[in-house]
Amino acid sequence: MTTLTPTRWVALLPAAALLASTSAVQAQEPIRIGWLSSLTGALSSAAIAENQGVQFAVDEINKAGGINGRKLELITRDTGGEPTKAVNFAQQLAFQEKVHFIIGPVNSGESLATVPIVAKAGLPNLVIGTVDELTNPKKYPRAFRLINTNRQWIDAANDYALNVLKRRKVAVIGDTSGYGTSSAKTATELLAKAGVTPVYSVLIDANKTDLTDELNKAQAAGADVIMPWSAATGLLARLINTRGDMGWDVPIVGHSAMMAPALRKLLNKPEYWNNAFAAGYQSTTYDAKGKLPVGTQALMDKMRGKLGSGEIDYMLWWVALGYDTVKVVEHAIRQAGGTDPAAIQKALENTKGLRGVYATYSWGPDDRNGFPDVGIVMNVASSFKDGCYKAAPR
Amino acid sequence: MLAALIAGLATGALYAAAALVYNVMFSTSKVLSVTTGHTAMLGGVFGAWFLQTWNIPVPIALAGSVAVGALFGLITDLVAIRRVLARSDEHLWLLSTLALATMVQQAVALWWGTEPKPFPRLIPQGFSSGLADQKYWLPVALAAVLAIGLELFYRRTLYGKLFLAMSEDSFAARARGIPTDRIRALSYVLAGAMGGLAGFAAGQLTFAYFALGLTLTLNGFIALAVGGLGSNVGALAGGAALGILSSVATYYLGGEYQQTISVGLLMLVLLLKPEGLFGARAGRVV
Amino acid sequence: MSVSLRRQVALVAAGCALATVPWWAGDMYQLHLAQLIGAYWVLIAGLNLVVGFSGQLSVGHVGLLAIGAYTFAILAGTHGLHPALATACAGGVGALCGLLLGLPSLRLPGFYFAMATLAFALIVSEIILAQSDLTGGGVGLAVPGFPAPFDTPQGTYWLILLVAAVVTWLTWNVARFMWGRGLIAIRDSVVTAQAAGVPVFRAKLIVFVFSGLTAGVAGSLFGSLQSYVTPDTFIFELGLFFFVCIIIGGRGGILGPLVGTSILTALPELVAPLAKLGTFFYGLLLLVVVLLVPEGIGRLFELALERLRPRKVESAPVRPDLERLSAAIRKGQR
Description:
The structure holds three protein chains of three kinds.
Chain A: H1 6-28, E1 31-37, H2 44-63, E2 72-78, H3 83-96, E3 101-103, H4 108-121, E4 125-127, E5 143-145, H5 150-164, E6 170-175, H6 178-193, E7 200-204, H7 212-220, E8 225-229, H8 233-246, E9 252-254, H9 263-266, E10 276-281, E11 285-286, H10 294-303, H11 316-336, H12 341-349, E12 354-355, E13 360-361, E14 376-380, E15 389-390
Parallel strand pairs in A: 1-2, 1-3, 3-4, 4-5, 6-7, 6-8, 9-10, 11-15
Antiparallel strand pairs in A: 10-14, 12-13
Chain B: H1 2-29, H2 36-53, H3 58-86, H4 90-112, H5 134-156, H6 158-168, H7 170-175, H8 180-201, H9 203-206, H10 212-227, H11 232-253, H12 258-272
Chain C: H1 5-19, H2 21-24, H3 28-53, H4 62-78, H5 83-105, H6 110-130, H7 132-135, E1 141-142, H8 153-176, H9 178-188, H10 190-195, H11 200-226, E2 228-229, H12 236-249, H13 255-270, H14 278-292, H15 297-308, H16 322-333
Antiparallel strand pairs in C: 1-2
Helix pairs in contact in C: 3-8, 3-11, 3-12, 3-13, 4-5, 4-6, 4-11, 5-11, 8-9, 12-13
């Protein structure tokens, strides 16, 4: 080995400096997370709440020093509920901003368009839309879903209506939007699997001002439970109002939007909301003693300042979901030892029983839906208090 | 079935009111403004705001909504119509009113939110009244009052006659010393006020919702085209026809093809009688 | 109208610049924007003949775009037809729908026609949702891409560029020959055009059908670009956008709407950080342009050109040979 003469030392110094600086830069290089959120437009209330969760998690992790010394950088894009904009922003985040992860979009319509694009770019995508077609281990290997699927909601509601309330004559109500038509179709299919054919099935325009006809027809068909699969608050409010005005005491069991706090003001009488049950989550349900699960309570206490004074008037699970997406990113990076997409994919594929606030997630090499079936609990629609609900009686 | 008819009549009355607003705006400016539906949307949204957030008594909130509608009508004229008419180019007023309508819709969405919000009871009434519920007969009563009011306005008051003069021939009117710009502004103020009133009365039917504007612009136009441009009786008839047909068709065929049926009606009437049911066949100046 | 040498050089230079975009575009995202502009331009070039030249205010062309995209997705995706054939079919279906829409509507006056096209776009949306077995309903359809050599991003860009160039050339030909003058005559004064012998309804219908064809083809390109179509993609605002591109670009020209399209497609990307206020500013911009520069951006260019290089107006005074003239008159009087 030749000795290092002073001249050789000097020659080596720049190289050493370069090497040191790049690894230092590498160590310092922030982890970029792209966040596609429909802060305006459809589902904006959900998106805004999820955004709070995401931002809080990012701040919390950064305050604790980041992940392996690397800070998180959140890049938000408002897609306005439009798939074309979502596609454009997904492309921008992937290729111009060169993010390492993409969270969202919130809307299923937008997600359907962006998931293939993010998959083509080879980036890990945390999916928070419920439409079943959004995940596919073969086509989109790096798309992992945190939220439940539509099927899980519908299964839970069907189970409650058929097996707990013991009803057989179902009236399925959807709206004429993309989400409403596909959900109503899936609901009918799943009912058929349980051996039940709906006695009345209708798709209603979400802006239709009067539902007396539809409910009269349902009543005439002998329905003993109404199952709405629409996320349109106006439509659901009119449904509940018409049922109350008619004095028809039939239970309503359906989409989680049935228990949206925004409905309270739209109802003619508060008691109209009785005898209605919606698909909710174990993580945001009060137990028999009125206490929330430990994780949820902890998050609420941590975020109390950010959530505003007084009781919160939106669904807490949105915030919890947003929070969890960033925590899943953190978990994945720690498991994979970096942000290499293939390693992240492997890390998430092998994740079982990851405890989050919103749910406990498990994925697999052939399974990209991480939400457990037991995570869904039917709630009493009118029992909203401070973001969470009471469980429906069994 | 009766419920379908009554509900259809009520919605149709709202469309008829929008058609009347179109008529008033058209009479002095020969412009069909895209902002027509938005005057009603503003009436509904501001009415709900006044009544619920500020707890203002109903008559004053009503006056407030009407004032907001009137103000918006004035803004439409000053911003979107005045300069554009001077150039006498057919596309431009469509575009400028469309731009203004988009701006208003987005501004309201940002302020009011994208979810429909409730519109409180105007007259104390229980909720089990079924078909006699005020949300049905308020819009119908309003449409009737507006139509009768307009007829009286045109026939009995000087300003009404000025409107008629301008709609006949605006050059001749100007030659007779009528300040056409000011009269047009006045007609837009009146139209906006009518729109605001309509939105306020129909609030319980539609909820206070930002996206109502464009829907009402299109449906009000269909009512107008079916009934005949320039005719108030036609506006009422067109609105009623559209509302009832939509409602009955939905009752029998389901809500999937609602838009198709409404437009089908429009196309049918336009093919058979292009000037509408009560419209006058206009001679074209060559 | 002959094309001067200077213009030809400019055209060739522009052509070269456009063809080499994949190499000098900043990144994949900007290339994607260029592809989007190209796909939009295929539709807008055809629509330009309808709106810009013959003055028919069609706000609902997004319905034809949707028909094109879904036809392509169904034929090439579900039925496995070759994408080129599927594109041709999409164009054909678009043309057919243009015919069906135009026949009853083109006789109507301006605002009525606009509302009819608006209603058409809403109907298309409704039918797509209702026929969910065919179109996937709310969930939508995946759209296949084009086969090699067009399956890379660069390849897709060149395909779109090729189609756009062909369509632009076609519309340019229509514009500069007698057809174009006839259409402008229809736009500016229908009665005079009729009196001069222009077959008004036939001309309007033919350009409308042509615009349906280009919309169908644009739908195929747009669909494969998005790789997934849902009914939410084809909202009224998109139809409005096409219409606005032409008005802002300037009617009666080809370059103006092209510039308008490029600017308006890229604008939301520039306005992105403003998040919530995006659509509001879009409306505001539209209003400002309509009030201040109604002839469009094309006119701004012309004004700037005039300022920089004023056209020399050659005055050619008429100087009659009075001697010969009076001699001829005297001869005629005899």
